[in-house]
Design a protein that fits this description.
Chain lengths: 167, 415
Amino acid sequence: MKKILTVLLISVSVTFLLSGCRVTTIEQAIIAAESNGSIPRLNHDNTIAGPDKDNNGIRDDIDAYIATLPYTEIQKKAVQQDARALTATLTVDKMDKTAVIAANEKLTRSIGCLHFQFDSDTASKMFADNQKMTVNTKNRFLEYEKFNSALSGSTWTLPDRETSCDN
Amino acid sequence: MITKKLFQFILIAIVALFFQVPTQAATCNKSYTLGFFNGVWNTSGEASESTYKLQDLIGNTYNNEPVKYEPFYNHTGDSVGSNGFQDVAETFIQRANEIDKSGQMGNRFEYFWEFMGSSEPTFLDKLSGFLPNAASLFDSVYTAITTKLVSIVSLFLSNPPTETDYAAHNARLDALATDGEKLMLVGHSQGNLFMNHAYDHILPVVTKDRVAAAHIAPASPTLRGDYVLADIDLVINAMRVQGASSVLANNLSIPFSSTDVTGHTLIGTYLDGTRAGRATIKTMIESAMEKLRCTAKYFRWIGYMCPSTSDTDLEVYIYGSQANANGVIQTELVASDSKIRIPLNAQGQCPIQGWDYRTNVSSYDKNGCMAYTFDDTSGGYHTLDYIAGQTYENGATCTQYKLSAGVYNTLKALE
């Protein structure tokens, strides 16, 4: 079913591009922007974690996006750490308070790592981008809501940025 | 052997002088904790992100003392039994489907985050590059979401959180107070309601010398410190338009930014480095931190030798003098204690051989009695616990004094 949808979307895209590229609807604008790569083509299936063929804890489409970023390898690892931590917030058992807190600690450390590897504005943008691309369907959003709800009322201490990166 | 006559001329009073301000916390670290109370629609990651931005703003030290940072997280809607954030998401889907009948946008929640202001609208901008009238279409979504957000904040104000919602925050504040931290509380949007409660909870424990508050975009009509509210803040302005007369007046004028449509976000609006809010907030927080003082407590023991006191009148008094930040005595607190006379042994001799260390402190003389330190280190200052652990003996007068449990508890309550 997923392959059929993908083929359909590509067909529509090709048809649209061959038709002279006159964009009159938002749908066409999305297709055009994703087709020419100005917006990453993200996975929007019904699963929570999404495809992760290399089992690195990051959705493959986000992995591919991070690979295109104009940053050093160590900086990309920081972005990957954050994407991995965000994905884990979706898949963690929300009834397991200890696990939720641990997932939040990893997420906080990953943000600290971004702030260690990037200037403040870029670090903020990297986190915001990872969040919007990871939590990019209603199902994923609802899981993320459960995670944040489970943390409501809690407090935590920001770790040292210098020791926040996994590698 | 010392005669009883000598005892008649001695009244031992113990004076405990508090330097700095007394609090109920036992210690005082020379460090700050900045607690951040997040605003409406923040995820836990965004609360952390915002706190990191405050760390960038204030730094890891202030007045050469370390500053630690802690998010005090609240999740929109939980405390009032509302699924507020989900309502906003449903609003997004509905409005997105209205401007895009194909449902492509409504299924792509990356746009939801951009409409929310959680991310710069980079993808929306890309779409606008392909579709010239996109901006006008997007306006309807922005408006619908902002309206929904305003209704959630209004609901929150009319249904404030309960003690259960505050419990974990209170517990953490208690622990920080016991640790001796100076507490700088910063609230944004609905977080100000949580912060107000937190401030009220911890104030009696640490006094204003160790806790301060700063409000950013306060949705709350009541304040515990200075505030900053931008004139472009659509959320707060909409609340005012809807009749929320208790909304505070704007006191920050900054230009609109297309990357920050709501004008209400902490990072996008108020901490934006290109506009005036950032510097204003830095000044507001640092001014509040400047007033915070370490409240370490030290005691100085002083006795009185009086010429006309009878043996049976011997008493011990405990005086606690509260000092301000510069050590100037402001008030005097008193608690009574009983002195201890050591009975002579069968041979009529005093069984103790000790001798107190005395140094006259004439500035404390009163009522014809001569003041002197009653201490083992020539009148030095000590903590209450140190003094409570000492036994002061004077073989010459065969007197002994050890702080009684009752007076210790009285002084502890005054800390």
